[in-house]
Structures are given as C-alpha cells and as structure tokens.
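Translate structure to sequence.
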C-alpha cells in the first residue's frame, strides 16, 4: 500500500470514528442497530462430532455491517468465544458481500440480513445429557451512509449431548444459509501484482457472469477505490484494476450477481491482457448473421404460413403501389419492434445475473401454453374454421393490421431456430447493449425482408399468381405446418409441465377452438357481434396459463456415459450393497476443470467400454446450484468443492479419491 493511500485511509477512518463517537454517546443503553442471535444446527450433538453454528444478523433499515475485509474503511467483527473444555470452533465463513461507495470510498458490507457460519467441534467421551454452554462476545461496527456506531452483543446457546439429530426445518434453514456462501471454483487462478493488477480466473465461456466484481480478501493487493474492468478471455475471466502491493497468495470472492460468488485462491504469475475486441466489426458480422438468419426463418413452419398469407393478401387486394409500400413498412416495423422488445428483456434478465438466451421465454410453461393456443388459433384460421378480420389499431392509413402481423410473425418465430441465428445471437449477448440491440433489430429486419421487397419491388408483385380458387386450397395447405408447430409446442409443454400440463394446454386449445368454431358459424350466417364467442373462449383459454406449473425436475444425469444416474447417498448405498463397483463424480457447469475432465477422459469411448466390461455403475452429482446436500457429502471427503472423483471397489470400505486431473488411463485402470 502506498504512503499516500495509508494517509488517506487514516484520515477517512478518523472521520468515521468521529462520526461514531457522537451518536454512540446518545445511544440508548441496550439499543442495537443490528440484531444478532446464535443458532446451532442440532441442539443435541453427539460427542466427538462437529455441528454447524450460525450467527444470524438482521440490520435496521438504512444500517449495514461489514465483511471480513471491510474495504477501504471499516472493521471486521471481533469475536471472543467461551466454550466448554475440549471444544473448539472453526473459521468463520462469510456470505458474498455487497459494495457500498460513499464519497468515493469503497466498502464491502451487508445492507441486508446476513448469516456467518462456523463449526463447533464437540469433545469426545461426553456422556449423553451433558450440558454444553456456548457463549460469544462480539464487537462490531455498524453504519449508515452518514454515521457509524460500535456495538457489542453477547450471544449464547445451550446444547445437550445426544444423538446428533437435526430437525428437518432447521436443516432446511441452514441449507439456505450455506447456499449464500461463495462456492470454491475448483480451478487454479493466477494474478499479476503491481500497479497494473490483473487476475485470471478459469470460468467456462458459456456460463453467465452477470455484473461481476472481485472482492479481495487479502489486504495490500488492490486499490479498493479503483474501478475494476472484467473481461472474458475464452474460458477465463480477467479482472484488471489498480494494484497496491505484492502478496504471496491472493484470496477473495468473485461475485457474479444475484448473491452468487466463487471463492478464489490465486498464485502470482504473468497475466496477459485479453485481446482487444473489434466491437464494430463483431457487431457488423453479428448483424449480418442475424439478418440472414431472420431471412431463413421465413421458410420455417412457424413463419412461412404467415408470410405466405400476407403475400397473398397483396395479390388479392389489387391496391396501389403506395399501399403496398406502406404495408411492407408497417409489417417490417412490427417484426423489428417485437425482436427489439424480446432482445431488450433478454439483456435486462442477463444483466440481473440470470443465465438466459434467445427464446428465454420458452423456458416458462405459461408462455409455451400461450403460444400453443395462439398457433392453434392461427392454424384453425388457415384451415377455414373462421375468418380473421384485419386489425386496425389506429395507425395512419390503417396499417395497424400489417404492423400487428409482423409482430405476430416475430413472436411466433421464437420457437424456431434457423441457420446463422445461433452464432449471431450468441455474439449479441457479449456485445455492448446498443450493438446487441442492433443485432436483434437485424433479426427482425431479416424476418420481414421478403414482404418488404414485395412492397417496394413492383416486378416481384407482378410475379405473384393471380387471385383464384386455388388460393383457398393453398391457404388450407398452409394450416398443416402451423398444426405441426402447435404439436411441437404441446410436446415442449409436456416436457416442462408433465402430462397434466400438456393435458391442460390441449384443453385450453380445445376451448379456444370451440369458441372460434362458434364464431365461424355466426360469420357464415351474418350474425351481429360475431366475435363474442371466440373472444370469450380465447380469454378463458389464455387464463389457464395461471394454472400450469413446472413439473418437478426428473433429475436426469448427463448422458456422457450410458446408464449414468443422478447421485444420491441412498443410491450409492444400494449399489454398494449389491457389490457393484461405483464411479461417482461431482461437477458443476461453472467448473472449467470439471468440463475438461469430462470431455477428455470421462466421456470417452475407451472409458465407456471399460466401465461396460467391468460393470461399473456411474453416479453424477451436479453441484451447479450449490446443493447443500451434495456440499456436505463433498466436505466429508476433505474437499472444499468440485471436482471430486470417487471410486468404490466391490467390498471396499472406503472410497478411493482420484486425482482432480483425469486421463482415460486413470479410469480404465480402475477396471483392470
């Protein structure tokens, strides 16, 4: 840390303590701005075991406490334990902190309730019924954005030696607190100390990082107040900021948004800056890909009928060239507007730290049910069950119908994926927001381009076939791909919401079809208010979206090895009881070492053949979401995180822990 920085920090700390002294003198005795309590995971721990202890803190509105490293100003809590003879506690484990900048000074704080976890090691040899009083005196600093107050608290819990039983509700509560802890990333990181500090953390390129930030735990490593630049570099993240020292080892937490974070331990080395991107060139390439992808979407079964019907409307209308151009512009505007809307929502979701991609709305079964009813209604219209009037929504010249049709085509197109779309939209997600929105606009423009050309090129309109009886037959033929699209959506709904959800979606479609059939009958008879049965049925059908729920996950394991099953301790015990050899591995989507091992060793043909000959059963534990049940099993094998590879030979008492870097020979040798 430079001399200037030390002086500045001391000056800032002086004013903080000055602000603390004034309100502390007027503070009511016993009044605290952070309420604390101590909870043990088991009130009756067994002798010779270890149990989790939680220190739960709830700040008053507008107040905050500090992380283990408070940042430029502040103090970490000071603890004084009073424990029974022979008992001890482990290191405190902190949840992922938040940033707070006041007058340009960076602090690492908690402005929400937070819980610290530690482990109490109970002495062996104690008789059941023995009392274990646990006491803690804690000094801590709490602040608002204007003042700070030092506070004290005495926490206590009285335990009794017993069988170690844990109440399910208490276990669930502790599991929630464990999820808030940073997960060990499982891959070595490298940092380059000095004025130009850089940290390189292995991180798969296809895992979202949200609004990432590196919280340094090691002091004298970085300038807390300096801004951080975080860039992707293939399967890694590079953090660049102003350095302030040269520690032998760097520890910290890489936060990725939404309260998620990863514990980092890095060693010194050389970290090259990521290659400078060419945003304009990348944006132009992505725009061209999106334009071509949108153009090719027109031949997909979910879009082609709509485009064809709209093109035939030009052939039938016989309107002027000005009318055709206006129709083309309105249709294009609708398609581009819908793509911009969907793209904007997608960028907002990703900025919140949620991993999402194009057609993100199709992960929600309610949206799938809505699309099922919509495409089914379009198919029934094409089949001639009823006549859909052209909507006029107030645009100049009555072009609202073309605008609505373009927007409808873009929305219905989301279940379809055409060539060039994947790479283009994937590139959009790593471009600056303005460039990304331009790519989404390119998709809409490509989707609308054929109809836009029809509007502006008279020669193309002249090549359209003349109206005739064939148009009715062609329209009915177009209903077939729309029915197929509805069938595909029903299948997706069944995958997401189960058989009950699919049945609900088909019932909603049947209800809508009955109402539209009634409307069609009234249209044939020339009745007034022809649309009220169809509208009422559509409202009821769409209302069923509130009833559909996502089915419980089936727990399918990765398919890299035939017959692989999701890991559970019960399944492991059952297989071992049958005398089967078992290979259990624990992985996560954000663990680069895990993914490399899976592709280079676990999922190879040689390993699959060897395991097949040896009758080895494979269990896969996915720790992507930090499942506390898996976390406890991993910790029981002296590992802080993934990857973890275990082999249970028939008749063996304990597992053989394999290296964290695998080769096919490592696994095939297990069988031989």
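Result:
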């Amino acid at each position: 840390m430079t001399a200037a920085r030390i002086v500045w920090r001391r000056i800032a700390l002086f004013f903080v303590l000055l602000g603390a002294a004034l309100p502390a003198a007027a503070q009511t005795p016993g009044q605290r701005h952070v309420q604390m309590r101590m909870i043990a995971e088991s009130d009756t721990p067994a002798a010779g075991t270890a149990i989790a202890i939680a220190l739960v803190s709830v700040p008053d509105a507008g107040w905050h406490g500090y992380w283990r490293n408070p940042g430029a100003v502040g103090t970490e809590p000071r603890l004084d334990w009073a424990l029974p003879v022979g008992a001890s506690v482990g290191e405190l484990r902190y949840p992922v902190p938040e940033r707070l900048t006041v007058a340009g000074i960076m602090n690492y704080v908690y402005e929400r309730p937070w819980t610290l976890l530690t482990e109490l090691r109970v002495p062996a040899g104690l008789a059941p019924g023995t009392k274990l009083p646990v006491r803690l005196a804690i000094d801590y600093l709490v602040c608002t954005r204007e003042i700070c107050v030092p506070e004290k608290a005495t926490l206590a819990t009285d335990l009794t030696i017993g069988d170690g039983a844990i109440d399910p509700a208490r276990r669930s509560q502790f599991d929630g607190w464990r999820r808030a802890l940073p997960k060990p990333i499982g891959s070595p990181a490298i940092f380059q100390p000095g004025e130009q500090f850089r940290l390189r953390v292995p991180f798969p390129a296809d895992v979202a990082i949200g609004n990432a930030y590196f919280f340094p735990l090691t002091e004298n490593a970085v300038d807390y107040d300096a801004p951080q630049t975080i860039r992707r570099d293939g399967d890694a993240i590079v953090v660049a900021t102003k350095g302030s020292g040269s520690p032998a080892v760097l520890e910290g937490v890489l936060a990725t948004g939404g309260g998620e974070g990863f514990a980092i331990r890095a060693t010194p080395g050389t970290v090259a800056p990521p290659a400078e991107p060419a945003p304009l060139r990348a944006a132009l390439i992505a725009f061209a890909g999106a334009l071509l992808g949108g153009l090719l979407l027109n031949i997909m079964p979910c879009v082609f009928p709509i485009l064809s019907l709209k093109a035939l409307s030009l052939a039938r209308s016989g309107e002027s060239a000005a009318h055709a151009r206006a129709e083309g512009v309105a249709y294009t505007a609708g398609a581009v507007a819908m793509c911009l809307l969907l793209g904007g929502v997608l960028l907002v979701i990703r900025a919140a730290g949620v991993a999402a991609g194009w057609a993100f709305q199709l992960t929600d079964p309610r949206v799938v049910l809505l699309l099922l009813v919509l495409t089914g209604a379009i198919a029934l219209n094409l089949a001639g069950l009823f006549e859909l009037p052209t909507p006029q929504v107030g645009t100049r010249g009555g072009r609202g119908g073309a605008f609505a049709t373009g927007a409808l085509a873009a929305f219905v197109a989301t279940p379809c994926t055409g060539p060039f779309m994947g790479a283009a939209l994937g590139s959009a997600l790593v471009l600056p927001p303005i460039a990304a929105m331009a790519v989404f606009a390119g998709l809409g423009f490509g989707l609308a381009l054929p109809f836009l050309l029809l509007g502006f090129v008279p020669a193309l309109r002249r090549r359209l076939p003349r109206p005739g009886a064939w148009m009715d037959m062609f329209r009915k033929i177009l209903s077939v791909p729309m029915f197929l699209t509805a069938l595909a959506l029903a299948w997706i709904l069944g995958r997401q919401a189960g058989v009950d959800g699919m049945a609900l979606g088909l019932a909603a479609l049947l209800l809508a079809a009955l109402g539209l059939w009634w409307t069609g009958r009234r249209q044939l008879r020339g009745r007034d208010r022809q649309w009220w049965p169809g509208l009422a049925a559509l409202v009821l059908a769409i209302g069923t979206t509130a009833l559909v729920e996502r089915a419980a996950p089936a727990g399918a394991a990765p398919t890299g090895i035939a017959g692989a099953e999701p890991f559970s301790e019960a399944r492991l015990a059952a297989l071992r009881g049958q005398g089967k050899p078992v290979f259990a591995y624990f992985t996560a989507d954000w663990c680069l070492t895990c993914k490399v091992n899976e592709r280079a060793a676990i999922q190879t043909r040689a390993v699959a053949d060897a395991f097949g000959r040896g009758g080895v059963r494979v269990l896969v534990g996915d720790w992507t979401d930090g499942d506390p049940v898996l976390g406890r099993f991993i910790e029981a094998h002296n590992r802080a995180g993934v990857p973890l590879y275990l082999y249970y030979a028939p008749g063996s008492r304990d597992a053989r822990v394999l290296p964290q870097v695998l080769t096919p020979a490592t696994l095939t040798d297990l069988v031989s």
